[in-house]
């Protein structure tokens, strides 16, 4: 140990009251472990000596309070010790080696994991922040105790947020509501989630919080007698059925009320006109018996029953939910669960904690959290972009889910608004990649169909079917998005290799040779000099504009012949394009080239070839870099739709926009966007962006528009 740590002895008489309180909370641990916790306090206090919080208290009070929150959950000694030391690597001279020597590798790993998290900021969406968030989730995947410490740390910081300035309070509150509360919910820790949400709400919107809290207090005062009567009636009916049960009234939190008012467009009165109760019984069978008892007391509301015992939520939550029509005309929401289910609902992965190994037993929340974290680790391995990864994870943190059945009777839980294609990828990546349609409750439907809980879904596949970019527009799950993007990137690579081959052959042809005539040893030497592993990498680099084909060709010929070549008088043949090479081709937004136009390609580094019309005003500038200009032309067989813009001058009168749009649609063109460029009392100029097949198709659109009788001029834009 270094000089930063004190002696090994801990004198209980010298411990401050907040440490004695922690000692009482960890009394469930063996005596030797309690001594290690107190030793951790001594090491932490010595490391943080002289440091104070914004409130003026000694800094060590914060990590001890975090440890106290985790002790209330009954967590293991290593987690408690790590909580006490969680800021030492970041803010003190204590090293990882010091912690390892005193408390072991496991504690050092936990402290190191949380330290990385404490460096994060989520106030913007820059790549650095996304990468930090990615690290947080991977730390969770390695050891879930890391996020338990971080959630407790965040909870104590939120409880003591008043000492911060207003801007810091808002930033911390926003990231709490957007990131930490949803993670707590995803891990089934509803008690943490609820407190984080309300503390975040109070800090971010203090006036709204105050108004809603006051109205809740007033409403509860007016309805206390009614709640007492309903509670007594429920308890009496359960007792008559010889079902030992605890009945408790549930009160909605300010954040819950505010969220529902905003998202469901309901008034405060509508939301408070509901009475909520929880019934806790001893066994799962008793849950169903209790459900029957309450249904015999008050009439159930049709289609408002949910069985989360048979089909648990993705975070392990289990309960029966029903809505009854009460004696006073107001709905009564009742949740029925066992004491075990109640504990898991409140504490999630932290319920009945004994740190589980992969082979050890785990409650339903712990098992499902492991599944989620395993899927996260798999997703990040296939997602090079941190921003894309955070986008996928935020989707998975979305709380609402639909529960669907496979033909074999298995149950899959997917986020709300998931489509049949999301379901296909949830079954298996290969099923998703080759999906063509779905049978939903035996009815044939397209892959973009949104699914609802309880549906039986069967995916129809075909060996020839492959993902396409349009799929990204309607899938919602991270797994589906990652798999589709991975396929498209692979496709882009294949396109790039093929196109690069054609470009290099064209350049070599101009020098009187071809790629097949270059000896293998020459190619190997060139690849070694260029630090490339395979010829495919070189060809892809050429297609993506990272290497100039003419320069590569000259270099290869020079290596083969031992000197610089002289150009042979060969004619450059244009490379023919079909439009299917979208992986390495893009089309200039400045001129919107169409099949049938005379075109030229310009090699843009990292993007590949950007196609322009020859008459594009930017081409003159491009020709100043002849090495980057590529001779290309349209193939005879061109597929796909291409963006075009029409500038249309119309008489300004009611209905004119609809008339022009109808004419464009009648010509089988899809309108992407329309905007007014100029407008006065008599006339207007509109700019339509649309999709067409080629120049001939665009000419047909222009003819139809001109025949409407409301158009004084229609021109391709730019001319």
As a percent range, the share of strand residues is: 15-25%
Q: What is the share of helical residues?
A: 40-55%
Tell me the total number of β-strands.
21
Rg result: 33 Å
Mean pLDDT: 82
Structural class: alpha+beta
Individual helix count: 27
Cα distance spanning the termini: 77 Å
User: So what's the overall shape?
Assistant: globular
Sequence stretches where pLDDT stays below 50 over 5 or more residues: 1-8, 117-126, 354-361, 563-571
Instruction: Summarize the main sheet.
Output: 6 strands, mixed
Pfam family, one: TGS
Organism: Frateuria flava
Enzyme class: hydrolase
Pathway: Purine metabolism; ppGpp biosynthesis; ppGpp from GDP: step 1/1
In short:
Residues 59-158 form the HD domain. The chain is of the alpha+beta class. The chain contains 27 helices and 21 strands.
Describe this structure as you would to a colleague.
It comes from Frateuria flava. Its EC number is 3.1.7.2. It catalyses: guanosine 3',5'-bis(diphosphate) + H2O = GDP + diphosphate + H(+). The protein is an alpha+beta fold and 719 residues long. The chain contains 27 helices and 21 strands. A hairpin with a 3-residue loop joins β14 and β15. The longest helix is centred in the N-terminal third of the chain and has 35 residues, at 206-240. The chain is globular.
């Amino acid at each position: 140990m270094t000089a930063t740590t004190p002696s090994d002895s801990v004198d209980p008489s010298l411990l401050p009251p907040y440490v004695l309180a922690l000692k009482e909370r960890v009394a469930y641990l063996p005596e030797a472990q309690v001594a290690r916790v107190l030793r951790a306090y001594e090491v932490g206090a010595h490391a943080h000596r002289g440091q104070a919080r914004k409130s003026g208290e000694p800094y060590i009070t914060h990590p001890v309070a975090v440890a106290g929150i985790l002790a209330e959950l009954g967590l293991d000694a290593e987690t408690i010790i790590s909580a006490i030391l969680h800021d030492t690597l970041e803010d003190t001279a204590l090293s990882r080696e010091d912690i390892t020597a005193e408390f072991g590798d496991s504690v050092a790993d936990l402290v190191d994991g949380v330290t990385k998290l404490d460096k994060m900021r989520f106030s913007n969406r820059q790549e650095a922040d996304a990468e930090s968030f990615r690290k947080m989730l991977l730390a969770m995947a390695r050891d879930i105790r890391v996020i338990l410490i971080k959630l407790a740390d965040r909870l104590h910081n939120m409880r003591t947020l008043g000492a911060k300035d207003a801007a810091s309070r808002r930033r911390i509150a926003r990231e709490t509501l957007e990131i930490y509360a949803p993670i707590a919910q995803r891990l089934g820790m509803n008690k943490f989630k609820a407190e984080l949400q309300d503390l975040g709400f109070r800090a971010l919107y203090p006036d709204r919080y105050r108004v809603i809290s006051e109205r809740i207090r007033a409403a509860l005062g007016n309805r206390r007698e009614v709640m007492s009567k309903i509670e007594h009636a429920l308890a009496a009916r359960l007792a008559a059925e010889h079902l030992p049960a605890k009945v408790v009234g549930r009160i909605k939190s300010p954040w819950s009320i505010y969220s529902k008012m905003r998202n469901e467009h309901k008034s405060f009165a509508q939301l408070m006109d509901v009475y909520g109760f929880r019934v806790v019984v001893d066994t799962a069978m008793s849950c169903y018996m209790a459900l029957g008892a309450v249904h015999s007391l008050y009439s159930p509301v049709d289609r408002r029953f949910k069985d989360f015992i048979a089909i648990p939520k993705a975070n392990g939550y289990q309960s029966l939910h029903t809505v009854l029509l009460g004696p006073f005309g107001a709905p009564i929401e009742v949740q029925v669960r066992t004491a075990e289910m109640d504990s898991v609902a409140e504490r999630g992965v932290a319920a009945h904690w004994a740190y589980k190994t992969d082979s050890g037993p785990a409650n339903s929340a712990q098992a499902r959290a492991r599944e989620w974290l395993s899927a996260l680790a798999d997703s990040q391995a296939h997602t090079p972009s941190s921003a894309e990864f955070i986008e996928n994870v935020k989707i998975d943190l979305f709380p609402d889910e639909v529960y669907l059945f496979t033909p074999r009777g298995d149950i899959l839980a997917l986020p709300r608004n998931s489509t049949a294609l999301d379901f296909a990828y949830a079954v298996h990546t290969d099923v998703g990649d080759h999906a063509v349609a779905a049978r939903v409750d035996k009815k044939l439907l397209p892959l973009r169909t949104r699914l609802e809980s309880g549906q039986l879904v069967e995916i129809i596949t075909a060996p020839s079917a492959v993902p396409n970019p349009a799929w990204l527009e309607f899938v919602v799950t991270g797994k589906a998005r990652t798999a589709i993007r991975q396929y498209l990137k692979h496709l882009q690579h294949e396109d790039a290799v093929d196109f690069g081959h054609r470009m290099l052959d064209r350049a070599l042809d101009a020098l009187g040779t071809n790629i097949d005539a270059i000896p293998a040893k020459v190619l190997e030497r060139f690849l070694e000099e260029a630090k490339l592993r395979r010829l495919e990498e070189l060809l892809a680099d050429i297609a993506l504009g990272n290497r100039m084909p003419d320069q590569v060709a000259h270099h290869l010929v020079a290596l083969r012949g031992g000197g610089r070549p002289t150009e042979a008088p060969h004619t450059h043949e244009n490379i023919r394009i079909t439009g299917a090479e979208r992986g390495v081709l893009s089309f200039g937004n400045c001129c919107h080239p169409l099949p049938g136009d005379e075109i030229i390609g310009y090699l843009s580094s990292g993007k590949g070839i950007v196609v322009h019309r020859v008459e594009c005003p930017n081409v003159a500038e491009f020709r100043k870099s002849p090495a980057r200009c590529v001779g290309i032309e349209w193939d005879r067989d061109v597929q796909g739709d291409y963006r075009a813009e029409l500038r249309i001058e119309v008489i300004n009168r009611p209905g004119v926009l609809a008339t022009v749009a109808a004419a464009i649609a009648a010509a089988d063109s899809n309108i992407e966007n329309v905007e007014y460029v100029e407008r006065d009392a008599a006339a207007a100029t509109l700019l339509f962006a649309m999709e067409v097949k080629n120049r001939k198709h665009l000419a047909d659109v222009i003819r139809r528009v001109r025949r409407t009788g409301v158009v004084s001029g229609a021109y391709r834009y730019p001319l």
